[in-house]
Specification:
Lipocalin; single chain; 2 helices
Length: 171
């Protein structure tokens, strides 16, 4: 009986640890940028565990300033990560900033600061459970990022960005 209780206690602790880790990850945001590279194909640049959130304000959703560190970039290739950071001058501008974002009725606008430039971007959003998922096209040239080429492969100017953030209680 003592062994069965110990086993049950251990299983309960493991279950609690798994639930805690899942709930912690559910509160982190993420950013994905779908990048087209001609003529070789596509890749997705990901930033995981980003600190950012949205909150409901009547029929609207708002997000205050949050930071996306270049140090969290993952494209699936270390050399591509390094080149991306070089093109965006991550040593001088170590973060992408979402200064403010506002959405209503499925449409939204956000002020994005990247590579020393600040621009307004427009897109759409959907509520998915306790998350808000925003999607918008972003022209790299508006942020002084031009002619990204490596060994004859070139990145298209427009990338499709998807930002997922948890919805939290109003501040």
């Amino acid at each position: 009986m003592f062994t069965q209780n110990n086993t049950m206690n251990k299983l309960n602790l493991i279950a609690a640890a798994v639930l805690l880790s899942l709930s912690m990850n559910a509160h982190a945001g993420s950013v994905e940028a779908a990048v087209v590279v001609n003529p070789v194909g596509d890749f997705v640049a990901e930033f995981k565990d980003v600190d950012g959130s949205a909150y409901a304000d009547g029929e609207s959703y708002k997000a205050d300033k949050f930071i996306i560190p270049w140090s969290k970039l993952s494209t699936g290739m270390n050399i591509r990560d390094k080149h991306a950071k070089d093109y965006f001058h991550a040593d001088k501008y170590p973060n992408i900033e979402i200064a403010t974002a506002l959405g209503k009725g499925g449409n939204g606008v956000a002020k994005v600061k990247m590579n020393g430039e600040e621009k307004i971007v427009k897109g759409t959003y959907v509520k998915d459970g306790n998350n808000l998922i925003a999607e918008f096209p972003l022209k790299l040239s508006l942020f002084n990022v031009n002619n990204i080429n490596f060994k004859g492969a070139g990145v298209q100017d427009e990338v499709k960005v998807k930002v997922t953030v948890p919805i939290k209680a109003k501040k």
